[in-house]
Design a protein that fits this description.
With 226 residues, the chain is mostly helical. The chain has two domains: 146 residues, no CATH class; 58 residues, Winged helix-like DNA-binding domain superfamily/Winged helix DNA-binding domain (Arc Repressor Mutant, subunit A, Orthogonal Bundle), CATH 1.10.10.10. Helix 1 packs antiparallel against helix 4, helix 4 crosses helix 7 and helix 8 packs across helix 9. It is elongated and about 65 Å long. The two termini are 33 Å apart. The C terminus is likely disordered.
């Protein structure tokens, strides 16, 4: 199967199930068997997923991609030995990062809920138009990418996490702040935005925020880069 067909949902599901590391092996750049150059798409999605893992507190090195051709048996063995070594050094996912198991699962599920939107963002704004490994890596390491990531990914992701918490039960600002590891003022800012967009509301009787609807987060339009 072409690496370009690997859905990030598979990766996130593996981590949510307790997998300590994920390795993706693909054809060398320029040697893809398909005209779509799927390995370039795979690299872009891996770099984006690593940024999202880092944002939620998971070591991005738990997700790895290496190029290995079908004729490179010795290299494949060396790569796999290195992958095993790196994963052992990182330790158990979540526990090694100091993240509570339930919080980790919530954050990974929040990303999975946004995947249709994230895939569109990746295609339209975050490098889907590049066709070389060097260009993709340069873009993902740029200040422009950091700005776009904060603008297009971080805010919808945090609001997705809030929606997931509120689907379980009504919560105060303090409870949401503690549940997501946010400061109270930051949590209030996201709650106010979610309220203006009709996703949550403050229940005066309970003195808590409640979910109005569970869908819609992250579905805003994505403009093409000029």
């Amino acid at each position: 199967m072409c690496t370009g067909r690997i859905d990030p949902g598979f990766i996130l599901r593996a981590f949510a199930n307790g997998t300590d590391g994920v390795y993706i092996g693909g054809c060398w750049p320029g040697e893809c068997h398909y005209p779509t150059e799927g390995n370039y798409h795979a690299l872009s999605m891996v770099l984006l997923t690593q940024k999202m893992l880092k944002h939620i507190g998971v070591h991005p090195g738990r997700l790895m991609v290496e190029w290995v051709s079908a004729a490179e048996g010795i290299r494949f063995a060396e790569v796999m030995n290195d992958v095993v070594k790196r994963v052992k050094e990182l330790g158990p996912i979540g526990r090694a990062e100091g993240i509570d198991e339930n919080r980790l699962k919530l954050k990974l599920e929040a990303i999975r809920n946004l995947l249709p939107y994230i895939k569109l963002v990746e295609q339209e704004r975050l490098g889907g138009h590049f066709h070389s490994e060097e260009e993709i890596k340069k873009f993902y390491g740029s200040e422009e990418m950091d700005r776009l990531f904060r603008e297009l990914i971080v805010d919808p992701l945090v609001m997705s996490e809030i929606m997931m918490l509120l689907r379980e039960k009504p919560l105060t600002v303090g409870e949401i702040s503690a549940g997501l590891g946010l400061g109270s003022s930051e949590a209030s800012r996201y709650l106010n935005r979610s309220s203006r967009q009709g996703w949550v509301r403050f229940d005066q009787r309970q003195k808590r925020f409640v979910s109005v609807r569970s869908q819609g987060v992250g579905t805003r339009s994505v403009e093409r880069r000029g």
